[in-house]
C-alpha cells in the first residue's frame, strides 16, 4: 500500500493488521512449556484458526497502537497508512472522529473477548490458554495507558515500580 501510495479501506487494513499484530505469536509462545495436557493440538488450532477472541485481541493491539502512534511517530515518515488515516479517508471524518470511531471498535472487540471467554467456555481449549490471551490483551491497555509506552518506555516506570518495587502486600 505504501509503495502504491494507496490508503486501504479500514476493513482491508484491519484484516492485515490483525494478522500482523503479533498477539497470536506471543500467545503461541506462551504455550511453550505449559505441558502436553494444556498445550494440545486443539489449543494450537484455536490460535491459528482465528477465533473471535484471538481476532479481538489482535484488533485491540493493532488499533490502540495506531491511535497512539499515528500523530507522534508513524505519519512523520513515509509509512503505511494507520487505522486512523484509513478511517478518516473512508468515512470522510476528522482525525478526532476517526479516533472516537476506533475506540468504539476496541470496545466492541472487548465485548467479543468477554462473550467468548465467559459465555462459551466449552468451545475454548483451556482457561489456562485463554487466560494468556486475556492477560496479553490487558497488557496492551497498560502499554498505552499514558501514551505509547512501546516508544516512550519511561511511561512504564510507575507501573513497573508498583509491580516489582512496591507491590501490594498479600
TrEMBL record:
Which cofactor(s) does the record list? Mg(2+)
One GO MF annotation is: magnesium ion binding
Task: Tell me which UniProt keywords the record has, alphabetically.
Answer: Lyase, Metal-binding
**An example Gene Ontology biological process:** terpenoid biosynthetic process
A Pfam family recorded for this sequence:
Terpene_synth_C
Boundaries of every Terpene synthase metal-binding domain copy: 1-112
SUPFAM superfamilies hit by this protein: Terpenoid synthases
Where on the tree of life does the source sit, at the highest rank?
A: Eukaryota
What is the recorded name of this protein?
Terpene synthase metal-binding domain-containing protein
What are the top taxonomic ranks of the organism?
Eukaryota, Viridiplantae, Streptophyta, Embryophyta, Tracheophyta
Amino acid at each position: 500500500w505504501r509503495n502504491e501510495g494507496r490508503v486501504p479501506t479500514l476493513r482491508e487494513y484491519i484484516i492485515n493488521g490483525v494478522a500482523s499484530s503479533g498477539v497470536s505469536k506471543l500467545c503461541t509462545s506462551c504455550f511453550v512449556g505449559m505441558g502436553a495436557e494444556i498445550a494440545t493440538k486443539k489449543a494450537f488450532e484455536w490460535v491459528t484458526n482465528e477465533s473471535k477472541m484471538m481476532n479481538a485481541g489482535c484488533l485491540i493491539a493493532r488499533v490502540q497502537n495506531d491511535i497512539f502512534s499515528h500523530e507522534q511517530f508513524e505519519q512523520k515518515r513515509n509509512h503505511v497508512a494507520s487505522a486512523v488515516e484509513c478511517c478518516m479517508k473512508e468515512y470522510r471524518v476528522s482525525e478526532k472522529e476517526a479516533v472516537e470511531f476506533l475506540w468504539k471498535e476496541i470496545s466492541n472487540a472487548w465485548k467479543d473477548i468477554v462473550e467468548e471467554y465467559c459465555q462459551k467456555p466449552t468451545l475454548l481449549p483451556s482457561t489456562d490458554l485463554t487466560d494468556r490471551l486475556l492477560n496479553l490483551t490487558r497488557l496492551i491497555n497498560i502499554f498505552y495507558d499514558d501514551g505509547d509506552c512501546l516508544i516512550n518506555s519511561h511511561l512504564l516506570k510507575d507501573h513497573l515500580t508498583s509491580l516489582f518495587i512496591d507491590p501490594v502486600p498479600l
